[in-house]
Amino acid sequence: MYTEDELLPISALQHLAFCERQWALIHLEGAWAENQLTAEGRVMHDRAHDPGTESRGDIRISRGLRLRSLRLGLSGIADVVEFHRRGRQRDVDMNDTQVLPGCVHLPGVSGSWAPFPVEYKRGRPKSGPHDEVQLCAQAICLEEMLGVPVPSAALFYGKPCRRFEVALTPSLREETERLASRVHDLMRLGVTPPPIYEENKCDSCSLISVCMPERLSKHRTVEDYIASALDERQG
Known about the structure:
Lambda Exonuclease, Chain A, 2 domains
């Protein structure tokens, strides 16, 4: 279990899953560079994070809900957490706390409600599990805070303008927990990894001008230079 002072941002997992160097540049060195993709994503998240609740039939929508997990050592703000009514709606006392398994009681509202987090992304679905890991971490936070299981969640992508439901499988949870442990290890280590240039990944990164992966990854280290010089002399 981590303390409140040791909590790291949930969003760090998404950066770490994408690239450990990107994570280090942002979270160790404080580097940031905005491009069109990040600007559009920031605007979408600013709108989603406006605090408030609303009702749509059997769904209550909570925006800007603060999350934390002392087990994972993470905290953050959920874009949206939907609470879906389960079972038959009945006329019960507003203070009735009898709820169905896997559900919670919402103050001032009758019935049983199952939490369902939704994360908003401005682009298209990615090839890797970067977004799914971030979403899974949010669900684990909700499970710890509310004491109920969260078996599924959703990612909403702006380009296709639709949501994709994500099953929070044991393998996804295992990967999320591994990255949460890794991000704390790297934070304690405090060292920025060297760049490794990958065209498809690096060219879309807003930090490419700060990271300079194509240029720096071609430079030899001092150790490489000394080893090469010794080989030449011995050869």
